[in-house]
Structure formats: structure tokens, C-alpha cells
Amino acid sequence: MSAEQNMLKVSMQACAQRIAKLRHSVEKIQHLFPLTLQQAAALTDEEEESVDALILRYSQCVSMIQDQIFRGIAYLEQEDISDKSNRD
Which of 16, 43, 44, 67 is most buried, with most CB under 10 Å away? Predict the structure, then answer.
């Protein structure tokens, strides 16, 4: 396995760990969804923290996929990504 393949493998394993935490967040608050404006206004502090954790973990997963996994795949495919943004 090349160094590039190993780096991608490590990134994918790290992402899998983040996804597991994201799943935990979803399971913890799935009873709240679909969330209405009235329900959102009545969330307890604990429920609000759980929603915040879900949003943060989702954001971390998206960032990791964009910054590490997609870039790692492009690098393995020998694509020039120097002029690409995260959205490209």
C-alpha cells in the first residue's frame, strides 16, 4: 500500500469514527423530529445541547469528507487540485 493510500485509509477510518458519533447524536434526539418552531422554542437545555452536538458533528463530517477524503481520492487519481475550492 502506498503512502497516499494509507493516508486515505486513515482519513476514512477517522471519518467513520466521526460518523459513529453523529449516529449517536441522531439516535439521542430522533424523538424530537420533525421539529416544529413550537417544539424548538420549548427545548430543554439538555435537548438544545444535543441538537448543537448533532449540528457540530454533521459539520465535522462534511468538512472531513471535503478536506481529506475527496482531496485524498483526487491525489490518488493524480488530479491537479491546486486551483480547486472545497466545493469543486
Answer: 43
